Fold Cysteine desulfurase.
Amino acid sequence: PRPFDVHAVRRDFPILQERVNGRPLVWFDNAATTQKPQAVIDRIAHFYAHENSNIHRAAHELAARATDAYEEARETVRRFIGAGSTEEIIFVRGTTEAINLVAKSWGAKHIGAGDEIIVSHLEHHANIVPWQQLAAEKGARIRVIPVDDDGQVLLDEFQKLLNDRTKLVSVTQVSNALGTVVPVQKIVEIAHRAGVRTLVDGAQSISHMKVDVRALDTDFFVFSGHKIFGPTGIGVVYGKREILEDTPPWQGGGNMIADVTFERTVFQPPPNKFEAGTGNIADAVGLGAALEYVERLGIEAIGQYEHALLDYATGRMRPIPGVRLIGTAADKASVLSFVLEGYTTEAVGKALNQEGIAVRTGHHCAQPILRRFGLETTVRPSLAFYNTCEEVDRMVAVVERLARARS
Ligand code: PMP
C-alpha cells in the first residue's frame, strides 16, 4: 500500500482550517457527512464556469461538454465500484432516494401479499421505512436479522429467516450507529443460494473499504456522494443490468423516454429509464472528482490508516470511568458510539463543541438498534482519513474532564 501522509492530506480540505470557539475544528461527524477536498470544490466551480448546460437534449457545444462531464462521472462511479457497465449506474439524490427507487420500482413489481423482506437490526431508517411502506401497501412483511451484544448480525438467525416467501434481503454494509462491519459477502451468498435478491446499503462503507459489486455479486448497491467527500444531493443506485432491464421505471417525465404519444410511452433503456427530469448534473461531476481523489489516495491505504486510528481511539476511550462503548464488534469501521454515566449525550456533545470538536449526538436515524441496547441516544464520533491521533487526544481530554467532575 502507498504510504499515507495525513498532514499532507489535511491540506486538501480547506474547512479543516476553520476555528470553532477559538479552537481548531475537529471534524468527528463523518458518518453524518464528510468534508470536501479542494479538488471537488474546484471541479464544481469549473463546471458552472465553463460547461454548464442541460444534457442530452440540445445539440450545441456546452450541451456536449455537460453531457461528457456527466457521463464521465458515471464511468468513474462504474470503475470505483467495479460494475460491468455504465448502464448499471443510476444517479439519484442519495441513499434514501436510491432505496426508495428500488422499493417503488423493483419492489412494487416483485413483492406481493404474504411476501417477506429481510433487513438487519442495524439498519438506518432509510433502509426500514421504504420497505415498511411497500409492505403496508402490498400486505408483505418485514423480518429482522437480530444482533448479538457486540452489535454483530447473527448469520444463523438469518439462515432461519429465509423461506419461500422471502423476496429480498436488504442490509447495510457498515452500521452508521455502531460502526459494525456486516459480512455482506456471506449474506449475499446465502440469499442467492435461496434464490433471493439482495440490496446492500453502502452509505457508510463506501468511504472506508474497497467495494467491488461484481465480486460481491449483490443485485443492488446504493450510496450517497456526500458520505465520500462529494457533494450533497447526488447518490447512486447500482443494479445488475438484466434486473434493471426487467424493472419498470419509478418517476416518469423527460429524459427517460424514447417516444411519447398520448396513448403510450416507450422508455429509454437503463440507466436513463430511471433518471426522469433534469438531474443533479454539477454534483454528479463533483462526485466523479471525489471518487478520483479517493482513488489517488488509495482506498486500501485509507482503510489501514483509519483502522489504526479507530483502534487508538477505542483504546483511549474504553478505560475512562463511566464510559460505555456501544458496538464492540470485532470488525468495525469509523464509528465509536458511547454514553457517559451522569451526563446526557447532549451535554457531552455541547462540552465537545465548546472545544471545537464536532460529534453527532442523538438517535442517528437508527432507533431500533439503539433501543436494542436500551438507549435512545448516544454520542457518536466518527472518523475519516483526515483525522489524527492528536484530535482523538483532544476529545479524550474533554471526556476525561467530564468523567472526573462527576466523581
Ligand atoms: N443508510 C445509512 C447506513 C446511512 O448512514 C445513511 C446516512 N446517515 C443513509 C442510509 C441515508 O443517506 P442519505 O441521508 O444520504 O440519503
User: Anything to note?
Assistant: The pocket of 4'-deoxy-4'-aminopyridoxal-5'-phosphate is lined by residues 94-96, 124, 126-127, 172, 176, 201, 203-204, 224, 365 (CB under 6 Å).
